[in-house]
Write a structure and sequence with these properties.
Shape: globular
Number of helices: 14
Distance between the termini: 30 Å
Largest sheet: 9 strands, mixed
Strand content: 5-15%
Number of strands: 12
Strand order of the largest sheet: 1-2-6-5-4-3-7-8-9
Order of helices and strands: HHHHEEEHEHEHEHEHEHEHHEHHEE
Number of domains: 3
CATH topology of the largest domain: Rossmann fold
Radius of gyration: 20 Å
CATH architecture of the largest domain: 3-Layer(aba) Sandwich
Length: about 350
């Protein structure tokens, strides 16, 4: 049986996610400054009660219900202070206090590329999404998207067909599949990757949740590839968030006559890299071939920046090495796989003592 203090901490973290979405920045700031979820909830909960009339006890009761529902559905909540929490998301200004995961939690810390685009995609757009996702998945990269109709679902299915890993980020609870015809696709994704959401199980797919989930799509990835995005496309929101997060943004050129790709062409005019094949994406990521360099040959400066037994976050390691967080993460994860470093809660890393 899990420790009661751990469960209480988890419930308080979940309760924080039930506060207004506009408070995410305040919650993230509090967590980054070491505030315990219980203390932060007590502080913000009082303000919430004055504004909405719902008590802190009500929030904690809802959190317990969500945790119970998650267990019944085999859905795992991953709080901010868990060592399993995706390190890439800790670089966001407003990371989710809790992620709900159906599938393999470990896949969230793998190198990933997002492929997003039009729901009403043309046959050309679907074909490009399938080819890129298949080729990238074959190199070991995880394909991330939003499981929407069109480009998103084509990318997910192609990654699965290639025997690769894929992550779907939902704008609803992980047990509420939208669009509903993707229930079987969601099952397959969970079996070969993960279906994730920051929203508690049972949350319906309301319109304002989808722009918010886009920051998680881009945040999990090293790069975002846009295919057939219109001028007011949700894919452009993802691209904008990716740029704000320091991720690479790439776009596929398309037909200039039908207006379907004006958003993506706008990205290209603004300096996004043109994508014609998976090789273009690999080159942008510094991965010219599917064969990875050994960790020791690329990560020695990173290892040297860490002191055994002393946990350091990405910002501190970035300052010591001169590498940006997005360039640093793949190297740290290589070192983790090699057993040279360990990941601890709050997105921090610690060097393992080689004498142990």
């Amino acid at each position: 049986m899990a420790d009661a203090a751990v469960i209480a901490n988890l419930q308080n973290s979940i309760a924080l996610t039930l506060l207004p979405l506009a408070w995410h920045l305040r919650i993230a700031d509090g967590l980054r400054h070491g505030r315990a979820p219980a203390a932060l909830l007590d502080e913000l909960g009082q303000e919430f009660r004055n504004e909405r009339g719902e008590s802190i006890a009500d929030l904690r009761a809802h959190a317990r219900e969500a945790l119970t529902r998650g267990r019944q559905l085999d859905v795992e909540p991953v709080p901010w202070d868990s060592a399993s929490y995706p390190v890439a998301l800790t670089t966001l200004v407003d990371p989710p206090p809790v992620l709900w995961v159906r599938g393999a939690i470990g896949v969230l810390n793998r190198d990933a590329v997002a492929i997003v685009g039009a729901r009403a995609a043309s046959p050309y757009g679907l074909s490009v999404a399938e080819r890129l996702a298949s080729d990238l998945a074959a190199t070991g990269l995880v394909i991330v998207s939003g499981m929407a109709r069109g480009v998103d679902s084509a990318a997910h299915r192609a990654a699965l067909s290639a025997g690769g890993l894929t992550i779907a980020v939902l704008g609803s609870g992980v047990d509420v599949i939208y669009p509903p015809e993707h229930v079987l696709l969601a099952r397959d994704i969970a079996n070969a990757g993960a279906v994730v959401s920051e929203l508690v199980p049972g949350t319906p797919p309301l319109p304002h949740f989808f722009p918010l989930r886009n920051r998680i799509i881009s945040g999990l990835c090293r790069a975002v590839v846009v295919i057939e995005a219109g001028e007011k496309s949700g894919s452009l929101i993802t691209a904008r968030m990716a740029l704000e997060q320091g991720r690479d943004v790439l776009a596929v050129p398309g037909n200039v006559l039908n207006g379907r790709n004006r958003g993506a062409h706008g990205l290209l005019r603004d300096g996004a890299k043109i994508v014609e094949s998976a090789d273009d994406i690999l080159e942008e990521l510094g991965m010219p071939s599917p064969v990875r360099k050994p960790a020791a040959s690329v990560a020695d400066p990173v290892l040297a920046s860490l002191t055994p037994g002393e946990a350091s976050d990405l910002d501190a390691i970035s300052q010591r090495t001169g590498l940006s967080p997005t360039r640093l993460l793949p190297r740290l994860l290589e070192l983790e796989l090699a057993g040279a470093v360990a990941r601890v809660g709050g997105g921090k890393f610690v060097r393992r003592d080689s004498s142990c």
